[in-house]
Amino acid sequence: MMKISGFQQLFSASSHSTRSFTLTAGDHVLGRVLKLFPKQTALLKLNGMTMVGKLEAPLIVRQNYWFQVTSTEGELPHLKMISPIKQGSELVESLVQELRIEVNKESKKWLSNLVEQGHALTKEKVNSLGNILAKESLTEQTKEILTYMLKLRLPLSKEVFDALKNVMGSSSFSKELQAIKEYNPNSGLGKVIDSIFFQSSGAQNEPFKKTFVNWLQATNHNEKAYQMLQHLNLFPKSKREEDVLSVASRLFTLQQSEVKAVFLAKVQESFREGFDMVRQLSQEVYEQAGEYEAFSNAWKAIDQYSNSEVIKQLMGVQRLTAFFHAFGLSQEGGGALLNLLASEVKSVDDAGIREKMELLISRITGFQLLSQANGPLSNFYMEVPLLVGKQWRDVSIQWSGQRQENQGVNPNYCHILFYVNLEALQDVVISVNIQNRIITLQIINQYADLLKESGEKFTKSLVKKLEELDYQLSGVSYRALKQESSIEKKMSTSSYSYRGGVDFLI
């Protein structure tokens, strides 16, 4: 799992955003007077940023002071000098005593470092931080989360802290979803979770799966559904539905009456395995019809469509939009998963499942907190399940770019980061930078040289597929992910050395 700040550092390394610093009344800030102007105004350096402010008393140039912001109304912030510069520990100590909160020595030292680093603290902020620290150990993760909350100006509450902590936690998002789904698969919640896994596993063949499942779910003869399969060239137009069921019965040693039920169960259990069965059946039916070339042409077209869809999903055109809606990150609202979790959690008798649901609610709330609009730009963060072979993996995604009305981020001008931990490759980061439909792709991994060696074979194919979608590939680069990187690895219980394995092709 990536640390949130690590993800942000990777993100900001390739973007050119300007720094911003917002003052609010009551903030305590460390500042330096650079130049004095008439009417008690001055050029100041606050929190590393240079700005003009209104002073309440004459001060000395090139002297450092602790200031309190008394007002932000009008053109200039009004600043009251608390005292000439002294150690941050003295300021924190005075605030802690005034607020009468219980904070240990280690926490006081960390709060002092915050103010000396330029973080604006009010009495209310110190009080809120103190309340959280009274219940949490001051680990590196705790420091990181609290610092991030200050940076994003999020509410300094225990609920917000827990939400971000759950996002950074080591538990598997995919496994939590699966456990909740298995508890009551036929409920509304179970169906929403099932749709999330469906988007992750078989989305590249979504039209085929939907049509095929519609046919399988019809217990009686369904001419319309079968004709749709023929329209998609899954079966030849010369063969009737009864012919297909008869072939399936012989091919897979089944009673003809149970063919649909068996296929439906297999497709729902594992779409990839189920779709392989569909391909076998399709081939057998085409061969019995003597249409060998037709089968080859039909499945060549299906495979080409599937490959194009994978690229589309990588660009976030379809899958990410569906996930945005499920997690309540889209501008249209949504949040079906979160709403159903909140409404059903109280009625669950199983304590273990109820705990997983509560953690999931907190985690998705964390996604929403990390997904913010900033002027004309939108930023989204989420985790989604990804099927790698027969195993589900968690993929962390951060997507930022120009905001479009009712459509989230503009896919022609955006930056997408994907992070996944794989068995052989371990931590993999894929950076997709899109400017005016021109794509720059960067793959970051500790085995970058080996990936480059094998990946270059597929560059021409990638260029061709992107051109079909009216995108242009500017270049693909590979970067080593070093030990001292800002990415937090999910700790493995066993050591691992590279033995030449490959998890999947990107």
Automatic annotation (TrEMBL):
Domain of life: Bacteria
Name the record gives this protein: Flagellar hook-length control protein FliK
UniProt organism field: Priestia flexa
